[in-house]
Amino acid sequence: MAPSRRNSRNPAKKEVKRVPVESNNGRKPEGGGPRNSVFTWFMVLALLGVWSSVAVVWFGLVDYDSVIARARQFRGNFSEVLQGKLRAYDADRDGDFDVEDAKVLLDEKKHLTAKREKLEKGLKQKPVSVVQPAEPRQQLDDVPGLTAEDDDVDGSQMLKLESEIQAAVPLPPPSEEEFVPDDSSKHSVLDEHPYEDKLNTIDTKGELVEESQPQETLEESGPYEDQSGSQYIHKPASEPEPHTEPSSEPQSQGEQESAAEPQAEPAASESTGSVSEQPEEKLIDKVKKKKPKLLNKFDKTIKAEIEAADKLRKKGIAEEAVRAFEALVQQYPHSPRCRYGKAQAEDDMAEKKRSNEMLQKAINTYREASELPSATPDLVRASLKRRAERQQFLGRMRGALATLEKLVQIFPEDLSLKNDLGVSYLLLGDNHSARRVYEEVLAVAPDDGFAKVHYGFILKSENKIAESIPYLREGLESGDPGTDDGRFYFHLGDALQRVGDNSVSYTHRHTHTLPPSITVLSVLQAYEWYARGHQRGHFASVWQRSLYNVKGLRAQPWWTPQETGYTDLVKALEKNWRVIRDEALSVMDTSTGLFLPEEENLREKGEWGQFTLWQQGRKAGEACRSVPRTCSLLERYSEATGCKRGQIKFSVMQPGTHVWPHTGPTNCRLRMHLGLVIPKQGCKIRCTNDTRVWEEGKVLIFDDSFEHEVWQDSDSYRLIFIIDVWHPELSQHQRQVLSPI
Q: What string of DSSP letters covers 332-366?
């Protein structure tokens, strides 16, 4: 038999059984033979994950921005939901629930727990007085060291007092922060005018500014050169809010306020105790008014429809609100409330669309609502008062006056309407009629603060300085709505400065440390009121009291040509000063009376004439024809000729002239004085506590928004050339959009 094939080579060799080999991790591979380990597979998967991530990022397979946005949206929604649930525990009424609310709630819980334990234990304690001791009279921060005992100061004490005043009323430190110009690529303030389709028909006092660019403490401007004048300038809000009337639903007594009444302004933070401090309850009582009743019997039956339309208006959907109220007026033509709502919706739409035409429709609709026979007295009052406000906004002062006169006829007992009527007369320059109105108010309500400050303003404009002081002071001390106004602080301080002029000797009047022309008492009083005006935010400082300001501009009384950056203009003026002087003298020699007397009530005595070449950035062509070389020289410098908040003029002052301490209206300009004919002695100018003299052919530069004063005590006339230039830190965009002064 043949041997088997398996053992053909080595029949004697036995078949050896193979032993399975263990893997590196100590495990035996299944099924025998070498297999990939778990670690190897883990590494493969890890590498696949890394390369997948790289591919996702490289090829942009996932929009991570949208994922993150959704996550943030979810977090925001969740936060809103949570805050909505926790708002019931909003103890400090700031609109949300936070740590402070928790502290308040915990404190209340502790208080209640302690009170309960005290009651349980039957503890009895003596009653504790809640009357706080009167605080000592705090001295004026800006004038430390000056007290009421200094009313009578003899010559031996004068020098000490002068040094105290110089240290007490320091100049504000120059601002080191760089001014960031506004981006000229943004829409200008003129582009943001609410009624730009008919811009020429709107008075500049009715300008709406949505964005505070440039930022001014007051948005309106006046046609006067200095704030010491007698003209009353309307002070509207920079951006009137949409007019809303209270809900028709019943409210608690604490929530009932009149929509037509102005809100009380916060009480002044006093620096001394001379101003009477009013209890908080008294201030609250002044603003609590009975809720106006705008619905008659019929309107109450359609209250749901009125509220549905009014809800659209309050949500800012002006177009739909107008359509809704128009439908209601068509359906219920005799409904005063529907027509009043239509007027409000048109008013809001006029602001949104910036349309004069729509605003005029609103004005007419307000009148229609007030004339419906079934209109409630409160609706008549609200309609006509809002109509007068919108007429004033458009600069239609006579129409507003007629509306207010009608209101006073309908509601003769309402003193607030008479006060508004007095303001309307002042805006028209009819001080005599305004005075009559405020005398009627004060005869009935002698403590009416609003009437007092305005009556005091009228007396001061009539140069009855001493008589105006008690009315201005008591009106400001009253804290009544409408009295916390920078103009009244300004005029009260100015009046206090003027009343004591004659009681100061010549030597003391010409000292550099004590502001001249004021007594020690008027320093204590005038600068105290200036300091309060500063604390209330009306003035940039005690010295810088302009009311039409752009925030952030460098503030210092005296400037050098290098600091202004207008060195070319200064060099040109000083190089050609003789040419300018000769042309000015040629005008003075004429008998045409081109030099007009100063009419801003700034002089205590003497003669002061001015010959204007540019006013509010506009060239006086006839005047420039008299001095052609001077005007040709200036036309090269737009910082002067384009300054809409300044003037370019010759100024001649005769011997024996004194100009009261005063400030200019705005911080947007600097003033250059080029000496042309200067007497050797007797001519001085003080700006803050630094007094200087002019030199022929030299330029002085100062910021006239700071307090300054002038004396001319020489034996011949003084002639200078005044050039106002833009503040160097104003951007080109700001110079274009600022309103003229």
A: -TT-HHHHHHHHHHHHHHHHHHT-HHHHHHHHHHH
Closest CA to 454 of 435, 467, 440, 470: 435
Using alpha carbons only, give the angle 342, 343, 349 rounded to the nearest 5 degrees. Answer: 90
Q: How far is CA 333 from CA 123, 169, 339, 445, in A?
A: 69, 65, 8, 41
Structure tokens, 67 = 């994922």
Q: How far is CA 70 from the centre of its chain?
A: 39
Q: Choose among 532, 540, 459, 455: nearest CA to 274.
A: 532
Please state, in angstroms and rounded to a whole number, the distance separating the CA atoms of residues 207 and 235: 11
- Contact 195/355 with Cβ under 8 angstroms? yes
Residues contacting 293, CB < 8 A, separation 6+: 376, 378, 379
What percent of the chain shows pLDDT beyond 90?
54
Structure tokens at 296: 């008659």
> What's the pLDDT tens digit per position in 248-273?
333 333 333 333 333 333 333 333 33
CB atoms within 10 A of CB 222: 22
Note if the bond before 214 is cis, omega within 30 degrees.
yes
Q: How far apart are CA 475 and CA 480, in angstroms?
A: 8
Sequence-ordered list of residues with C-beta below 8 angstroms from that of 303, at least 6 positions apart, any chain: 248, 295
Going by C-alpha positions, the residue among 686, 681, 542, 564 that lies closest to residue 141 is 542
- CB within 8 Å of 503: residues ≥ 6 apart: 519
Question: In residues, how long is the chain?
Answer: 741
202 near 350, Cβ under 8 Å? Answer: no
> Which residue's structure tokens are 């009437």?
451
Q: What is the pLDDT of residues 414-460, one digit of tens each?
A: 999 999 999 999 999 999 999 999 999 999 999 999 999 999 999 99
- Which helix (H) or strand (E) element contains residue 155? helix 155-168
| pLDDT tens per residue, range 377-387 | 999 999 999 99
Tell me if the pTM is above 0.70. Answer: no
- With vertex at residue 223, the alpha carbon angle to CA 226 and CA 448, rounded to the nearest 5 degrees, is 75
- The Cα-based distances of 648 to 89, 576, 614, 622, 687 in angstroms read 63, 16, 5, 14, 20
User: What stretch of H or E contains 675?
Assistant: strand 669-677
The count of other CB atoms within 10 Å of the CB of residue 150 is: 15
Find, among 700, 677, 414, the residue nearest to 560 by Cα.
700
